[in-house]
Amino acid sequence: xxxxxxxDLRDSFTAGDYQRSEELLNKFRNQDxxxxxDNVLFNLESGIIYHFSGKYDSSSVFFxxxxxxxxxxxxxxxxxGIGAFLTNDNKLVYDGEPYEDLYLxxxxxxxxxxxxxWEAALVETRRMAFKMEQLDIKxxxxxxxxxxxxxxxxxxWETGKVNIQNSALxxxxxxxxxxxxxxxxxxxxxxxxxxxALKEQESISSYNRMRDESFEQLRxxxxxxxxxxxxxxxxxxxxxEDARIFIDDYDDEQNNEFYLKFSFPVLQTHRSRVSYVxxxxxxxxxxxxxxxxxxxxxxxxxxxAKQPIIYSRALVRASTKSIGTKLVAGAxxxxxxxxxxxxxxxxxxxxxxxxxxxxxxxxxxxxxxxMKTIQLPSGLNTVRLEYIADNGRTLYFDEFEVEIFPDTxxxxxxxxxxx
Amino acid sequence: xxxxxxxxxxxxxxxxxxxxxxxxxxxxxxxxxxLSGKWNxxxxxxxxxxxxxxALSRPWLNQFNRNNQKPPVVIVGRVRNxxxxxxxxxxxxxxxxxxxxxxxEISVVASAEERAEIRDERLDQQANASYETTxxxxxxxxxxFMMIGNINSIVxxxxxxxxxxxxxxxxxxxxxxxxxxKVWIGNxxxxxxxxxxxYRGMP
Lengths: 419, 203
Prior knowledge:
Chain A contains ten helices and ten strands. Chain A is of the alpha+beta class.
């Protein structure tokens, strides 16, 4: 039921109907489809819907709640250990994916930029950088906690390597914000980290990035008064994959039929139709926005590091269930062979029907972030953000009227096209 | 009769059981209430107490009084939050202002934002207030020193997320507005060790 609700929400959001998305989300909440265990998701979805509806204060409240809950729920996950291995993950409280925890701070930072609170926005970019640095430790911590509490010896509690340790998006925003605050040394350090992050992300990129253009201009606060931000694509989505193992080692003494089915979620990215984003200023000047971060690819990369833990959990859960069925069926079979076989068959059916992967994920997170800083003259300007397909066709555009005053420091012009 | 009595008891039980469980108690503002481990009023109070005592006891104050025969005039500038938390620095800067003004040893003038509003009022008086009560223009007291500062934090988290150490360092400085000379630097360090609750059984 929640899976269907998530699809509906994604559809309404990608259609750009934020009012409908807000209504849908509240309807799902009232119908108890988003339960208290799904609070993190509810707050993440609300945060982004309110953000793109221009309700920045409310959006930050939702994101802050989500962030606190992720932190608390992660501690519970670690403490819980094997205690909940018999329960399907989707019955447990959702503790957010590490990439969701990371990107909620992006939108909080953007909320604060819209509200002209640079200092608060910088707090968010620092949190992003910190979370990115801690990612490897956090995922290893989770594996370690599960490993300690697992006495079944059915799984290797390994983690994948997190190959990305920097978020280009956080460093881009921090460079702009430090430069605007007059902290040029910090801006320079952030620009260096931005370049490192872009280099790190080259291997996972599916776009041709403009590598030759430097970001040095970001450190010159008087050279721009507008930050253009275009978001494209969609959040990665989870699909269920099933694995089945059947061992038929029948002998006269005992029935050694062993059936194991386990389901786990696999993260898949959604291909955006957008080839690039450009801005048309006052119907005359054109400039292309730079692809700063492929949030979907970074998410998939981060998820890859956690994937072995997800497999191991699913395997241990299914094994425990299967062994339980086998033991009970074996005991009954000694007294009544027919009943024992029937029980084992019912056990197989139960495994088929109850084993379900946890497909919960943040649906409304965008897939790519494009940015550019520009200098606009004082007065009323029009800025049109155009989303261009491979064949050069404009898929979508958003037009803004931007009023610039002599003392305007930084205006954020932001838009999204999710297809 | 017995049936209706049981029903009434059941309804009463449900009513009592469904009462809001929120309880509010007024407590002494000086009480330490560490709930989340985040920066809170106690930290702000500790910073204010230390900074006030330090600023008022250092030689710069006597030196200024001796040389100028008047208390120094201070304006509160920006205290930058360079931490990973949203910290309302005004909570302790206002405490400092209050202590300086009440001590009589340091004069404090309105900050840039406050000044704008007062200037609007003064301008308005020129047109609307009576001649006797209109306040004069260009009579503002210029600050001798500006108080600026920053807050930094270092977070060290255990692998299992259950223990966390946060180190805050708060720096405040008085900078001579004319010469850029720093006459006082105060520093307060706060270190917190946070042990998170164990799993409470909620799935």
